[in-house]
């Protein structure tokens, strides 16, 4: 039995609608593989891992993995994740969201999770569109790009997930892509074990809803675009307009759950 087959049998639920619902060429399956490989590499106990997901294409990941999982309401995944981490700080809580889930209806929760620095890993799968509900413009759709609700090109400036998370106070902020699988694995592992709130953005192509509307000839073109239009942040020079990847913020402040435990213990000591 190959190593890949062993991982599949150990970490995936085989009674949950396989083959998966992701379209051919979708980057979400690569991110799912990275998540499984990262948990395995870190030797985390499955019973100590909690995957919290919202609604959308990325939300299906919670159904496939054999961990503790919660499939929540659209935009509210981080609120559930926060409650779980506060109730049991020993758990490794990973919150899986799409760009619409994390930055639109869930945007306020992302900001305040970062402000609180709760010890949760936020995995934002950014395919720059609402993929499951028809291809509407999302908060991450680049200005000028086409969608079902912007047939002449989006007039709005998109959110920069990395800059938003940094400004809001997240301890660890990083970005990779589904093309750069090795880099994604490394950053995923760093994000999972880092104290406080961690945000990892994974740029993930959507060939069905985004690619077709924006004149990509095929899936390969979308992955080649990621290859050509991204650069490691440490190699980016002034004037380079490519999307930087890597680690953008790496702080070592205690998470909200740690501060809460310290406060509770100090108050109990006074009794």
From TrEMBL:
<dbReference type="GO" id="GO:0044281">
    <property type="term" value="P:small molecule metabolic process"/>
</dbReference>
<dbReference type="InterPro" id="IPR029061">
    <property type="entry name" value="THDP-binding"/>
</dbReference>
<dbReference type="InterPro" id="IPR051457">
    <property type="entry name" value="2-oxoacid:Fd_oxidoreductase"/>
</dbReference>
<dbReference type="GO" id="GO:0016625">
    <property type="term" value="F:oxidoreductase activity, acting on the aldehyde or oxo group of donors, iron-sulfur protein as acceptor"/>
</dbReference>
<dbReference type="GO" id="GO:0030976">
    <property type="term" value="F:thiamine pyrophosphate binding"/>
</dbReference>
<feature type="domain" description="Thiamine pyrophosphate enzyme TPP-binding">
    <location>
        <begin position="55"/>
        <end position="201"/>
    </location>
</feature>
<dbReference type="Pfam" id="PF02775">
    <property type="entry name" value="TPP_enzyme_C"/>
</dbReference>
<keyword id="KW-0560">Oxidoreductase</keyword>
<protein>
    <submittedName>
        <fullName>2-oxoacid:ferredoxin oxidoreductase subunit beta</fullName>
    </submittedName>
</protein>
<dbReference type="InterPro" id="IPR011766">
    <property type="entry name" value="TPP_enzyme_TPP-bd"/>
</dbReference>
<dbReference type="GO" id="GO:0045333">
    <property type="term" value="P:cellular respiration"/>
</dbReference>
